[in-house]
Amino acid sequence: MICRPDGDAWLLISQLDHSLLSGEMARRIGNGMFAPPSPFESVVNAIARHDCGWEAADREPELNEQSRPAHVFESDILVALSAWQKSVNQIAEDDAYAGLLVSLHTMALANRAAAKEPAAQDEFSRHRAFRIRRFVHQQIEIQENLRRKLEMRSDLPLRGGLAEQGRAADEDLLRTNFFLLEFLDQLSLNLCFNRLVFQRVEMVYPRTGEGPLTARISADLKEGMKLNPWAFNEAIFQFDVPAKRIAAAPYRDLPSLRSACDKAARCTVRVVLQPAGS
Asked: Residue 38: which domain range?
């Protein structure tokens, strides 16, 4: 769930709609600097559906410490692990390459979460740490199975599920596509939150075989967000994202929040992205 203020209301955007926005951007990647995704449909599928496993969690939002709807960065890690696994399972079932990309993405998220977890000092903390490690190991096994299905090499050393650049053409392509997913995920989160959650995105590969660059994002109150370098085949990117509108007030308990969400008016949020300097 993404929660953003809008006057006297909060706008709620589901994780799936955020990822579908990422997919719309993926369909428009490609210009003199950036190559279109390849294999196109599998990469776009992965990017567009990478958060499909959050649907159940988004139907039952939680409250944060301020008695407002908790957004995705406030989600409990155990809820996130379940949603991530559902995303991998749903996508890998009918598209092995897309499933491999989403598994790599969720494993990276879990590793980042593990780095932020406090040292395990009690049984609950140890259980959380164990669940994260188990999730990462499950993704490694899933990735091995998907690699075999895709007839990719299994004898290369991997770090974070990726081979060192230059080892094999299909591995270089996988690296490019993985970091494209990371890039568009973070760019979409900025647009949906309407704030700079990420001001720069490292390791963006404009073309397979080339070195990575850093994408920089800035915000303009009147003109939306701006991106440098520009990665799209259109002069400006605009899209209407589905949302729900609820009153911006403290909610006393979960039933009152979930009742408000069930009765919420549906609306759309226009997001705008332009090249820096335009």
From this structure: 2-275
